[in-house]
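Give me the fold.
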Amino acid sequence: MTAQPTVESSIADEHLRVAQMMSGLTLSWPIQTMDRALLAEIESRGSAGEPLMQECARDLKRHLGAIQQPEDYAPIAQAYAVYAEALAYILLDKRKVRLERTPGTGGHAQKRPDFLHKHSKGDVFFEVKCLDFQGGATRHKDLADDALEVAADLDGRARQAGVHSGVLEISAFDEQARPVERIETLIDKTIGNLKSGQLKYGPCILIVDMGRLQPEAQHPCSLLPVYYNDGFPSPACVSGELWHVALGRMGDMIYQLPEFEGKSNLGRPLQREGILHQHPELLGISFILPRLSREAEIYSIWNEQPDMTGLQNACGLSELEIGEFISSYSDAMNDTQNTYGFEYVRRP
């Protein structure tokens, strides 16, 4: 009998295998949020000869293949980190910002940003950071245990007549976290993953993937110091979470959505300095915000006057050209002077 050739599984197949292994038993938010269409595009681009996508496809296949049980949190995290890099690459590529690996990245004792874009006026670098749940693997385990309990309860009740449902609340933050705690967590997580040498290699934009650790950023008003919420649950002035992640000052009062009409909107003063105050050399920060029903969006804050005195490689772009460049690939943008805030001051 002639042996049948082995058909190698695709990245999407491996992801489906992992998702099916967990289905009805537990939940992995990183696996849940991966878009299989994007996984197929990563593989297709890799097969077409794009070097960076070849690298991502290889690493994704390896990490997904290493997931053999729901508790394999390390390869799950590694797979999502690669996915986040590939998502940033593809999103920017579709917006005509072509990226390539920074030469020497990963070399011995070399601190360089992840990506390089060859702008017509000079090189621009991108450093990508993918933030994990507050509490890391412990929080993932808690969520998985909660999902298992809901599944077990449903299985027990399904033996009785009637229609049954279960509710699982998914939060990447501690259950009682208020907006001010979310902002501080996002700042701490980002700063803890940054290396100053990488950011000072050349003019650099920080990309922060929010797929696993999502703030309140469903509307561009999150890029404002404060905005007016005109709808549910009550009209109130609210602090923009992404603005304060980037530009918050210690002591800034954080205003939050009241739980109901008549409830106070006061949080507490912020106890951290925003990322751009701690790393003023950055040209800006771009937040990638995955959406469950549509393509991910990019919200950016442009640092109008970065401190470029310590850069190893000089910036060839003018201040205006930097702003135009960041705006060209962003779905919404503000700057350090809140110049564009008038566009988003009210959230319906």
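Residues 9-94+135-171 form one domain.
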